[in-house]
Amino acid sequence: MPLVGLPGRAVPPPLLAAGTGCPVPAGRLVTATYLTALRRRRGLRVEDVCQAIGLRTGHIEAIEAAQTRLDPITAQRLMGLYRLPDPAERASVLVRLSGEPGGDVVRDEDARWPERLAAIEAAAGRITVCSGRHIPPLLRSPLCTHVLARTGTTEHPQAATRPLTDGHARVTAVLCGSVLTRGLPGAAGHAVMAQQLQHLIDLTDSGRAEIRIVPQRRLLALPYGSLTEIGGDRTLYAEETTIGVVYSAGPGSRHARQTISTALRHACSISESLTLLEQARTRNASSLSSP
Fold it and tell me: What whole-number distance in Å separates Cα of residue 170 and Cα of residue 199?
């Protein structure tokens, strides 16, 4: 029976580790996806990477396919090739993630987790994000991002700096209706929220995002932070917390899949959701002129 992701679209079965028949550990899958994203972002082929760092093509292919763990020497060579700051520290984190024994769930709480998540999101073939409290970082306007960072109310100092770009796949966002009514901090909170809601409307009109609103009366237990389905050659689920991100894959992602699927089933249609966005924007704009 296929795993359910977006309505009408089956999610591929979990990736299996070579020679074991068991699902690939989530940490290894995260590392493989991140390294593949780094290479593709630089326009390099596997052959180019292997020639540059002096390793066999099959070795890098196996790492990027999550069929083998990332070893320290390869990690350091890759970080050096990609010219990332503090390559030794980055390599150490990736080796640890890749080597997490078994398990369908892994936590990335290193200070650079937003950068890794951003790279993985940017390389995804599809993105579905669900939130019961906040506007997800990918959908925040520059002004909203600035205000949240300045007031210290973001989940992580770098978490908000992940703007949606032309290179991203189209995003499907499922938001609780309370997200539209929750004010932003500061004297200009209503103005910032009105601008943020207009940003969501613009993303919808341009076709870069599909916004679906779940009415509050549904009383669904949606995630406090952002829960994201990142699809492509493989499917990962990422739930952001106050100190990092929790990735799940394979059987361990069952709860995440069910959360997103249930939210989509109970969400308003695209046109109804757009109407709700416009009404919320009007209310926030009206509050600016109220005494």
Answer: 15
Which tokens go with 222? Answer: 């949606």
Using DSSP, how many helices (H) and how many strands (E) does the chain show?
11, 9
Place of tokens 């350091």: 76
pLDDT in tens, 86-102: 999 999 999 999 988 76
SS3 call for 245? strand
Name the nearest CA neighbour of 110 among 20, 15, 19, 244: 244
What digits encode the pLDDT tens for the residues 234-264? 788 998 887 889 999 887 788 888 888 999 9
**Phi, psi (rounded to 5 degrees) for 87:** -60, -35
Give the predicted TM-score (pTM) of the model: 0.83
Query: Cα(269)–Cα(100) distance, rounded to whole angstroms?
Result: 41
* Residue 171 token pair: 């995003």
DSSP state, 23? Answer: B
Residue closest to 252 by CA, chosen among 239, 243, 262: 239
- What tens digit of pLDDT does each residue of 190-235 get? 888 999 999 999 999 999 999 999 998 777 778 766 788 887 667 8
CB atoms within 10 A of CB 261: 20
Instruction: Note whether 106 and 26 are within 8 A (CB).
Output: yes
Contact 134, 177 (CB under 8 A): no
Contact 147, 135 (CB under 8 A): no
Q: DSSP labels for 98-112?
A: HT--S-SEEEE-STT
| Residue 34 · residue 120 · CB < 8 Å | yes
End-to-end CA distance of the chain: 58
Beta bridge partners of 3: 11
Tokens of 50: 């292997």
